[in-house]
Amino acid sequence: MPLFALRRAARAALASLIVGVGGLSMPVAHATGTADAAASDHSLSNAAELGKLIFFDASLSASGRMSCASCHSPSHAYGPPNGLAAQIGGPDMRSQGTRAVPSLRYTLNRTPIWTHAQAASLSERLSETDNAPSGGFGWDGRFNTLHDQASFPLFNPDEMANKDPAALLAKLQHTPYAARFKDVFGQNIFVDPAKAFTQAMYAVERFELEDDSFHPYSSKFDAYLDGKAQLTVQELHGKKLFDDPAGGNCASCHIDQSGANGAHPLFTDFNFQSLGVPRNPELRANADPHYYDMGLCGPLRTDQAADKTNCGLFKSPSLRNTATRRVFFHNGRFHTLKDSLRFYVQRDTQPAKWYPRDAHGKVVKFDDLPPSMRVNVDTTDEPLTRKQGERPAWTERDIDDVAAFLATLNDGYVPETKARALKTSSR
Ligand code: HEC
Ligand code: HEC
Q1: In angstroms, rounded to a whole number, what is the distance separating the alpha carbons of residues 209 and 212?
Q2: Whether residue 304 is found in the same domain as residue 427
Q3: Is 273 near ligand 2, meaning CB less than 6 Å away?
């Protein structure tokens, strides 16, 4: 095994020490050496192989035209294949969801379970960092396991839209892999619908946790951390701007340091914040002026609604592969990375650029939350602290540099020397 592959194997082992929702430790003995090989990973368990078939099977939707992969496209880092704010699905493929599709890369086996540590004392409660909610799957962290999460899109009327588990199982029994499902889970598995359904969701979870294509660690930034690539002057300047606590301060939430155990960073802290992203008229649900997606406090999530300080908070996403996306933030309000960066540094200095005006001509900041909840929006973390008319934390040139740095997080990096060799050999 080349040294490169050994290191990768060691890293995979270390990464599995981080106890995530996956808990179940990652298989270690399948280091492939190159990320390109990840697409054909032959070390999947039987359950994971079945989960893969389910993940890509459009026949399991009410429309017959939508699979998990329709929204989580493997050639787009398991994110959306297009720039739609929310995807179109449902029984007749005409319903629009309410949230942007997140990438499934990297986070799945390292997401901590949902926690909302309550402050032990009053003085702790007054300090800002005490009870930061964190973890769980979905923009609002409402699922603690991947098998629970998987059942949501299968029955959501805007997505795969199955009526109930019985409808799904009827379809599953007619797939070409139904016999294989029985071989793995028992010949009588379909006699017990509850058990068959549980095993199907477990299979999807195994695929998501085991398949290397969900965590290839093949970006230029990974190569840089391993001492195998150098960042350009521009990329390094972008990183400096990204890290600077008094400037972009991005790394305080989108962590870019390796873990104590050497695990490469995921560019998220899995915490929740309210950034005050402007309302998105592209979402049909927003035609109703009384509809608000308030993340932790609903309407999709229901168990945290009593605590109004939760309203408007969404989970910080990983920024790996974000430069390949065409839709950003929970409501898909922005369609270019640079606009997303401009929003951070100009939200408060030039609010009129981002928010609409009311009937009296006054700019309505944080218009995607009910007026009483707008106090929850983060105005204490840099660069979200400035006042109208002040100088933004970054210039346009800085934004170019940060965008260049973030592009080093795209998977599939081919080192210069290798790229040159490939070019000459193909002549
Ligand atoms: C119609 C598009 C669509 C389809 C089909 C779809 N998803 Fe999703 N997926 C989403 C959206 C949107 C979210 C964010 C949901 C939220 O915050 O409520 C999401 C979130 C997730 C998450 C949470 C990721 C995280 O890091 O928090 C996982 C895991 C996931 N989907 C897996 C699946 C699986 C497995 C299937 C198939 C059974 C599937 N999805 C089908 C759109 C889709
Ligand atoms: C206080 C924590 C925090 C800080 C600081 C922060 N972010 Fe974020 N970031 C978040 C959260 C939370 C979201 C999701 C918010 C939402 O969708 O409403 C997010 C979303 C994003 C997204 C959208 C990604 C996607 O897949 O949709 C990008 C890009 C991003 N941040 C970049 C940055 C950059 C660049 C900086 C520095 C200027 C930064 N962030 C600073 C917490 C933070």
Answers
A1: 8
A2: yes
A3: yes
- Of 175, 197, 214, the one marking the end of a domain is 214
Give the 3-state secondary structure of residue 212: helix
Is the beta carbon of 14 within 6 A of some atom in ligand 1?
no
Regarding whether 137 and 255 lie in a shared domain, the answer is no
Domain around 256: 217-427
pLDDT tens across 32-66, in order?
333 333 444 569 999 999 999 999 999 999 999 99
201: in domain: yes
pLDDT tens per residue across span 82-117: 999 999 999 999 999 999 999 999 999 999 999 987
3-state helix, strand, coil in the chain (%, to 5): 40, 5, 55
Instruction: Provide the domain count of the chain.
Output: 2
Are 297 and 308 within 8 A, CB to CB? yes
pTM of the complete model? 0.90
| Cα of 328 from ligand 2 centre, angstroms | 9
Residue 155 CA to residue 159 CA, distance in Å, equals 7
Nearest CA, atom 10, ligand 1: 101
Does 252 fall in a domain? yes
Q: Ligand 1: does its nearest atom lie under 6 Å from the Cβ of 204? A: yes
CB of 99 within 6 A of ligand 1: the answer is yes
Read off φ and ψ for residue 363, nearest 5 degrees: -70, 130
In a domain, residue 29? The reply is no
Closest residue to atom 13 of ligand 1, CA basis: 101
Atom number, ligand 1, closest to the C-alpha of residue 98: 12
Which ligand ends up closest to the CA of 133?
Answer: 2
Tell me: do 68 and 188 sit in the same domain: yes
Indicate whether 169 belongs to any domain.
yes
- Tell me: pLDDT of 119 over 80: no
Asked if 425 and 281 sit in the same domain, the reply is yes
Last residue of a domain, one of 167, 186, 214: 214
Q: Which atom of ligand 1 is nearest to the CA of 66?
A: 5
Of the bound ligands, which one is closest to the alpha carbon of residue 402? 2
Residue 116 burial class via C-beta count within 10 angstroms: exposed 0-12, middle 13-18, buried 19 and up: middle
